[in-house]
Amino acid sequence: MNEKNIKDTLLKGERVTLEAKRAKTEVPKSVWESYSAFANTIGGLILLGVDEDRKEKDPAKRFHIIGVDDAQKIVTDFWNTINSDKVNENILTDNDVNIVTIDGVQIVFIHVPQADWRIKPIFLNGNVYKGTYRRNHEGDYHCSERQVKAMIRDSIEDGNDGILIEHYDMNDIDLDTLHRYRTLFQYRNEGHVWNEVDDKTFLRNLGGYAVDREAGKEGLTMAGLMMFGKGLSVRERFDNFRMDYLDFCNLIGEERYSDRLTYDGRWENNLYQFFSRVLPKMTADLPRPFRMEGVQRVDDTPQHKAVREAFTNAIIHADFIMESGILRIEKHNDKLVFRNPGLLKLPIEQVYQGGVSFARNPKIQNMLRMVGYGENIGSGFPLILNAWKQTDWGEPELKNKIDLDEMELVLPVPNVTETTQKTTQKTTQKILELIQQNAYITRKELAEKCGVSSDGIKWQLRQMQNKNIIRRIGPDKGGYWELVPQN
Q1: 441 and 402 in a common domain
Q2: Which residues have CB under 8 Å from 283's CB, separation 6+?
Q3: What percentage of the chain has pLDDT greater than the value 90?
Q4: How far apart are CA 274 and CA 262, in angstroms?
Q5: Can you name the residues that pair with 261 across neighbouring β-strands?
Q6: Which of 361, 392, 412 is the last residue of a domain?
Q7: Are residues 23 and 62 in the same domain?
Q8: CB 159 within 8 A of CB 360
Q9: Pairing of strands 18-21, 44-48
Q10: Which residue from 2, 24, 391, 392 has the fewest beta carbons nearer than 10 Å?
């Protein structure tokens, strides 16, 4: 950090990553709360010798550089304390603490990086529950017990979803869900030896069922219950967690939403059913440029793959144990939104770069990958970014919503209403031209020539008939189309 960097930082005034403190010859006691808070959140900068007027809204007037009297003593005292038992971990290097002269006075800067998820929480005075802090836009705050426990869970390298759930066994599995998964697994993994084993063995091979020989216990893991469990069993064990899909497209009048999938007793409320039911809804209106490989139309696009990846990521990074956690998927006219409980385990810039990934739910990650969902470790988010770069839809935005303990990914998309209308108009015009050329043309031929699915053509023809644009003369087989004269 130099004088210009520090002044630019003060002008931005982003309190979630900036803490200014008065200091003369001693390290302020509140520095250690800020150290813990920044380390447990997304990192930040502590400036000693800068006064802050928190009532002032204008960042240019809020901060005043007043300097310290003995910068070197402060730096020495700081290092002595951080290497004592004041904090449980020193995560700083020599370059993270230094003295800078600004406008003729000296200040001390302390750069605190985001701590590695494997050593969180960073806490004070040897007490993890009373000495753990986090950061928000208001400043440092003392973590609740549930927030501390969430960080402790995240520090487990094997992830969260492999733990054995006592008293839950194969009777709590929805066999219809499991068998649907097995059918897709067999299709994607033809000849795999797991295809020949019974359901319990299959689930154990996947990591959905565990045996603790030492304790003499066995049963479903969190992954097995959440992915394939009966809805009632899932809700009994994880009554804090919810799955919710909302479609806000094309609302009419006072409608709150046009479609919703939530706990309503009409489906087994497990992750695999939620994923299978919601994914087609999320991708239904994405543009599908006409492309053929040989005699087959290819409907999959990089953007469709990216949406699948985004949905998969929301599931594998969700904290199912978090209090009032919601896996919420939203569809809007101009964007797709994926929200999951739990903050990012990695610094956000590292997620953008890719190359490394640490899922909270690696067993579920493997289950989805085995049937074709989810990229190789560390390549998922770059895949999403690259897919959106190929469009003019806008930049994807990944957010750590610290106040809500939630991660959010927003993917801008073309306005669904406008895109659908334009596509419908183009297809209608194409159908009219083809009927003019050949009144006996079949639905199958129309679908092939228009680059639309058979169901899509069927819907288009019905709409055109309802609007009295065309009419059918004779039976479905052997009849022909006739254009209706328009006034």
Answers
A1: no
A2: 304, 307, 308
A3: 67
A4: 9
A5: 245
A6: 412
A7: yes
A8: yes
A9: parallel
A10: 392
Please count the structural domains in the chain: 3
DSSP state of 143: P
pLDDT for the residue 297: 47
Tens of pLDDT, residues 247-271: 999 888 888 999 999 988 889 999 9
CATH of the domain at 39: 3.30.950.30
Please name the residues in contact with 483: beta carbons below 8 A apart, sequence gap of 6 or more: 432, 435, 436, 469, 470
Tell me the three state secondary structure of residue 431.
helix
For residue 124, give the DSSP letter: B
Over 60: is that where the pLDDT of 298 sits? no
Average pLDDT over residues 178-185: 97
Pick from 285, 284, 242: nearest CA to 263:
242
Q: Which amino acid is at 284?
A: A
Tell whether 427 is covered by a domain. Answer: yes
* 160 lies in some domain: no
Task: Among 412, 437, 460, identify where a domain stops.
Answer: 412
- Identity of the amino acid at 349: E
Helix (H) or strand (E) holding 97: strand 97-102
Q: Are residues 363 and 424 in the same domain?
A: no
CA distance 302 to 68: 55
CATH number at residue 463: 1.10.10.10
Mean pLDDT over the full length of the chain? 90
Distance between CA 232 and CA 272 in Å, rounded? Answer: 15
The two structure tokens encoding residue 58: 């204008």
pLDDT tens digits along 74-98? 999 999 999 999 999 999 999 999 9
CATH code assigned at 293: 3.30.565.60
Residues 83 and 197 in one domain: no
Q: Give the mean pLDDT of 432-458.
A: 87
Q: What number of other Cβ atoms are within 10 A of residue 291's Cβ?
A: 12
Note the pLDDT of residue 289.
61
CA pair distance 148, 445, nearest whole angstrom:
62
State whether 473 and 358 are in the same domain. no
Sign of CA dihedral 172, 175, 177, 182: positive
* Inside any domain, residue 24: yes
Same domain assignment for residues 403 and 269: yes
Strands 296-297, 217-220: pairing is unpaired
Rounded Cα–Cα distance for residues 121 and 135 (Å): 13
Q: Quote the CA–CA distance of 279 and 184 in Å, as a whole number.
A: 15
| Structural domain contains residue 15 | yes
- The count of other CB atoms within 10 Å of the CB of residue 89 is 15
